[in-house]
Amino acid sequence: MMLCLAVTVKAQIRGNNIVVQVSPDRADWTYKVGETARLTATVLKSGCPMEGVQVDYEAGPVMYPDVRKDNVTLPHGQFSWKATMKQPGFYRLKLRAHVDGKDYEGLCTVGFSPERIQPTPNCPDDFDGFWQNALKEARYTALEPTRRLLPERCTEKVNVYEVSFHNVSWGSRTFGILCVPTKPGRYPALLRVPGAGVRPYAGDIWTAEQGCITLEIGVHGIPVTLPQSVYDNLGSGALKAYALDNLDDRDRMPYKRIFMGAVRAIDYIATLPEWNGEQLGVAGSSQGGMLSLVCAALDNRVTFIGVVHDALCDHTASLHGVACGWPHYFYGVKNPDPKKVKVSGYFDGVNFARRVTCKGWYSFGYNDEVVPPNSAYGTYNVVTAPKELSLYPQTGHFWYQEQWDEWENWLLRQMNLRP
User: Fold this and answer.
1) Residue 200 CB: number of other CB atoms within 10 A?
2) What are phi and psi of 206, to 5 degrees?
3) Residues 282, 290: contact at Cβ < 8 Å?
4) Residue 6, phi-psi category: left (phi > 0), alpha (psi -120 to 50), beta (remainder)
5) Cα–Cα distance for residue pair 419/408, rounded to 1 Å
6) What's residue 415's pLDDT?
7) 28 is catalytic
8) 83-139: per-residue pLDDT in tens?
């Protein structure tokens, strides 16, 4: 009986007892240019303000703080700050509390007339011709797809495969996980494009079970079902800085192949007899948000996109003292190489966003320290196609569950899988 009643208890570690909470005096975190935002920072221990805590803080435009103070004592654990801006943009207050040899951070970023933000112009004259020609050259090579069933991943409703197809040339392949409903029929399709990094992929089985085809791709030309150690080694070695490689050469820059691979994934979906030939969406976050813009701009078969904190946008903003998008090519660079500046324009999400014609759902957070809200909002502002903006100001470069659920439900509605 004792053996039957025995329960193994495993302790869970969740969160911190000490929290740096920074909040504005307006629920939407948004003000008009010239207004004053009042920010309050509190260092909490067990939910209560911590007496006599020491903090460092910085404040100012995002990525360009103009005030820094160290070792400031907060007698009652609280700190107040006023912020304003004369131009549309975002202002950030960030605190770091020092407690028992450990640091705890908190921040708050408020927007000032962000709907008026415009990205810096950096579009090469031959932008359209370059990408049309790149896609034409890639399509000279037949897809020659492969498909391998992954029985251990299949469900009653969905068959799961590892697939591959040619990318920009013979032997250069894109790999991904394809999920197809087992019930005979023709279905809408969703292409999942990845954020930056090197990793395996499991495929979007859950969404496929709702009644659609899903294809989740990798972008590095390697199978997506290898042991984790393979991706760890590549991410620390040959692919460690792939986003920065060959920025002075538009044809050797890795993102040329990556962008083409995403569009050729659409070519592959179009060959599937199970696709209904109507709804075809592309969705992703960070690098994947950018790839969603690329696909929509370069292929009119895309009928909707779901874009979350899109990276690779507004590269040259930092040359004008404004926060630039990841990977921050010219941040802190005083004398940039003119060739790199020009080449970056071919790979700037802003230039693709201007060419999007399908409907889109866009979401990001003000506290994002990877993709600054300046670049995300500025990119959104130039989209002229039907669009929806769903802000989650407190998020950084991560999701809230409610944000994910809203994104997923919007995608399903575009495929007529939700009312």
Assistant:
1) 16
2) -60, -50
3) no
4) beta
5) 13
6) 98
7) no
8) 999 999 999 999 999 999 999 999 999 999 999 999 999 999 999 999 999 999 999
Residue carrying structure tokens 């660079």: 333
Tokens matching residue 309: 């904190």
Give the SS3 label for residue 393: coil
Beta bridge partners of 31: 112
**Of 286, 318, 344, 375, catalytic:** 286
The first and second tokens of residue 305, run together, are 């996109």
Tokens 């921050």, located at residue: 328
- Cα–Cα distance, 183 to 199 (Å, whole number): 31
**Cβ–Cβ < 8 Å for 55, 95:** yes
Catalytic member of 220, 315, 328, 397 = 397
Residue 318 appears among annotated catalytic residues = no
Residue 315 DSSP code? G
* C-beta of residue 385 within 8 angstroms of C-beta of residue 356: yes
Joined tokens for residue 205: 């089985």
Mark whether 46 is an active-site residue.
no
Amino acid present at 361: W
DSSP letter at 239?
T
Extract the residue ranges of the chain whose pLDDT is less than 70. 1-11
Residues in the chain: 419
Q: Model pTM greater than 0.90?
A: yes
Long-range contacts of the stretch 407-412 (C-beta < 8 A, 24+): 407/283, 407/306, 407/308, 407/361, 407/363, 408/207, 410/306, 410/361, 411/190, 411/207, 411/281, 411/283, 411/304, 411/306, 411/361, 412/207, 412/210
